[in-house]
Structures are given as C-alpha cells and as structure tokens.
Amino acid sequence: MKNQSLLRFATVPAACLLVATGLIIVRASASSSSSATDTDKKFVTEALKGGMAEVSLGQLAAQKGASEDVKAFGQKMVTDHSRLGDRMKVVASDIGVSAPDSTTLGDTAEKAKLEMLSGKTFDDAYIKAMVKAHEDDLKAFQQEEADGTSPEVKHAAREGAAMIQSHLDMIRKIATAHNVDNSASYHKPSPYGSFAHGR
C-alpha cells in the first residue's frame, strides 16, 4: 500500500514534466512561425520548388549525359538537393508553410528543352544552365541568410549556401574541362530565382 502511494506521487512530477515539455514544443513551434516574415516563407517555398527542379534535371543529366563528369554531377544534384529538400520541408512545417508538390512552369519548360538535346549538345547546355543557376541560387540563399528574419530559415539558408557554393565550384571546373563558355546567352532561370528574376 505504501509502495503504491509512493508510485502515485512519483508519477505526478513525471506527468508535469511531460506536459511542460509539450508546452515548450508548442510554444517553440509557434515562435518559429510568428518570427517568419512573408519574405522568409516565400524563400522557403521557392527553395523547395527549386530543389525539386534540381533533382529532376539532375536525374535527366545522370541518364542523358554523354560524359561521366556530367553524369556524376547530375547524380550529385539528385542526392544533395533531395537532402536539402528534406531539411527545407522541416523548416516549412515549423513556420507554417505547405510544401509545394510541383516545380514552376519555367522549370518544366526548361526540362522539356533539355530533353530534346543529346550528346555533347546536351552536356554543354546542362553545364551552362547549372553554372548560371547556381550563381543565382547562391545570391538568393546568401541574401536570405543576411536579411532574413526567422533564425531557423536563416540557418537553413546558410547551410544551403555552403552546399550551393560547393556545387558551383564543381560545375565551373566541369565547364572549364569541357571548354564551355559560361558567358554564353543560354540561361536557365534560377530555381530560387523569384528574388533575382522576379518570378
């Protein structure tokens, strides 16, 4: 009987702790949502759409690429942007943003253009597109990191910027190896380009 009484009293603090922990989580989630501005939310939405586009184009490059380095880069886009997309989905949920289920019409049209190409023509077009896109993406992520309001979104932008910088360094080296002129007019709008291109 005494043991049962002690057990009852012992469970009370534990129950209180669970309730308090639940309240802390709820309050933290509400705080994350309230601290995110419309600009933060737009960035996350565009980042998710852009990540889906990078994965889709990466899959295309892995399949259609004529050279091994283009194929490998395409596969890396699939792996890395899938991972970044998962991270951004968590952020989106925390700030009250619904994850988009499709890319932009511009990205869909871009993929259709690349699907019509093959061999070296495909490789060169994909390389040029990726150089320009990653240059624009890097600016967008760095801008959010510098000017964003939500600490969680800013942190995700900082992580994303580091990854994108790495990709940009890689694709620039590939461009040099393929003698691709990055100043050419071929231009794929940045998947995250609503900030840079007004999409």
UniProtKB/TrEMBL annotation:
Residues of the signal peptide: 1-30
Gene3D superfamilies in the cross-refs: 1.20.1260.10
Keyword check for Signal: yes
Keywords associated with the record: Signal
Signal keyword on record: yes
InterPro entries listed in its UniProt record: DUF4142 (IPR025419), Ferritin-like (IPR012347)
Any one Pfam family match given in the protein's UniProt record, by short name: DUF4142
All copies of domain DUF4142, residue ranges: 39-173
Cross-referenced PANTHER family: BLR2558 PROTEIN
Protein's name according to its UniProt entry: DUF4142 domain-containing protein
Organism of origin: Acidicapsa dinghuensis
Origin organism lineage: Bacteria, Pseudomonadati, Acidobacteriota, Terriglobia, Terriglobales
